[in-house]
Amino acid sequence: LPEYFQRVRELLADDGVVMNHGITSSDPEGGGVSYGGGDFIDRYVFPNGELPHIGLALQAMQQGGLEAFDIENLRRHYARTLRLWSDAYEAHTEQVRAMVDEEKFRIWRVYLAGCAYAFENDDVAIYQIVGRKAGRAAKTLPWSRRYMYAGAVAA
Questions:
Q1: CA dihedral 29, 35, 41, 44 (to 10 degrees)
Q2: 57, 92, 102, 133: which is deepest, by most CB within 10 A?
Q3: How many domains would you assign to the chain?
Q4: Is the pLDDT of residue 155 over 60?
């Protein structure tokens, strides 16, 4: 991860802003998720994937020469998104089955429902980290988040 963020820093303009969007583990020790979900995902969906804790991601970002200046946890939103995807999957099983073999159909069925559960129960989270080159943020950032919400309507 530090090498990844260093490369991002090299590609970023001096006044540029980067947003890193990533799924993270909720376990600060990097342990597995409940019910063997991590083993299932590693075997069938994302071989050799890793879910760092947000603390590790932030540390690696700083080691790569970037400064985080805004962090948002979208776990609740992604739990809902996954639940809606899973519901749509179930509502369209015949169309999905026509596109893939039975094994893939079952893998993705379990994956969507299991991920929805994992996000709903805080096994995993999804963070958006906004950053700049280290040392640059203090000179150019607005003093509040008001600029993000101008004209926003409550959901």
A1: 150
A2: 57
A3: 1
A4: no
Q: Report in angstroms the alpha-carbon separations of 99 from 83, 92, 96, 102.
A: 21, 11, 5, 10
Instruction: From the candidates 23, 51, 68, 115, give the one annotated as an active-site residue.
Output: 115
Residues 6+ positions from 117 with CB-CB distance below 8 Å: 123
CB atoms within 10 A of CB 68: 19
Task: Give whole-number Cα distances, 59 to 10, 102, 112, 130, in Å.
Answer: 18, 42, 30, 14
**Tens-place pLDDT, residues 100-129:** 999 999 999 999 999 999 999 988 999 999
46 phi and psi angles, rounded to 5 deg:
-125, 80
The question of whether 47 is a catalytic residue gets the answer no
Say which DSSP state 123 is in.
S
Domain range enclosing 7: 2-138
Structure tokens belonging to residue 123: 């096994």
Examine residue 14 and state whether it is found in any structural domain, yes or no: yes
In this predicted structure, the answer to whether residue 154 has a pLDDT above a threshold of 70 is: no
Q: How far apart are CA 47 and CA 50, in angstroms?
A: 9
